[in-house]
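Protocol step 4 of 5: obtain the predicted structure for the target chain.
Materials: sequence only (see below). No template structures provided, no constraints applied. The aim of this step is simply to have a reference model before the mutagenesis design in step 5. Sequence pasted as it appears in the construct record:
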Amino acid sequence: MTCSSIPGLRHYKYYLALSLALLLSAQSASATTVRVITSLGDFSIELFDDVTPGTVANFLNYVSSGRFNGTEIHRSVPGFVIQGGWLTYNPTTNNLDQITVDDAIQNEFSVSNTRGTVAMAKLGGDPNSATSQWFVNLADNSANLDEQNGGFTAFGRVIGDGMTVVDNIAAQQRYTLAGLADFPLINYNGGEVVENNFISIAVVVEAETVTAPNYFDEASGQLRVTVDAGASGLATLAFTVSATEPDVVIKLDLSSVAVISETVDKIATFDTATGRLVLPELVVSGAAAFSNLVFVLGDAEQLLFTLESFEQI
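Step 4 output (structure tokens):
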């Protein structure tokens, strides 16, 4: 007989699994998301608020002050990075001006520089020299950027289909401009560079929209759930799809858990005695698509839930 076959211990494991998630939520918050609006399309960045708090605060300070608005993507290296957050075009003088920067920040390297992560640029030989410039990793640059200069701090990641826009920016022709090599321009045919030749950006914080207590977030590919776990409390959670064959399996993202104080209509429930998570309704693309979804906690250590049943609306 194994521990999992003893009902009391099995139920206790279920209780511990969700309770651990709720306890960790006291130290974690929902990720901030910003929208980067460019001349070639928009993409969203999910910030690592909890992992790199100082770097995120610094980045958001530039966002809230509007200093990123009107800046240009000034560096593009194929298969490596695109970079911005430094220069603006002055149509009066036809020059590139540097934005006002704050004091350099402490390095917070933790997350590897894989494709789609967003990191701070800094001076060579000085790990704590980052100010305003940031870049998107076009490839897995961990072997290079994780090892040098104290490691480059990745403080966010491009979500959804945003890398399609990033890759399009990276595909633009590059020139040497104002002494800078690898400066990407669009619709440039030689002669004087004009405003429309730059890949200009603006960055804004995306407002959270409460569409439903339980919905599929197409931007992040996550299942967002608001749950009543009885004695464990109320919380919002996010699940990632771990498998679709032979069964649909979702995994709880502990970093997404946030405790709430009030219940909502059509809230999901979690029964610690049976390990069942029940969603009365699931919204997809703004419309109720499924009802009475039942997930069973099959792996308490990995926090994996298997879809047991559902009804299509």
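Step 4 remarks: The first strand starts at residue 33 and ends at 38. Helices lie at 7-25, 53-65, 142-145, 162-170.
Proceed to step 5.
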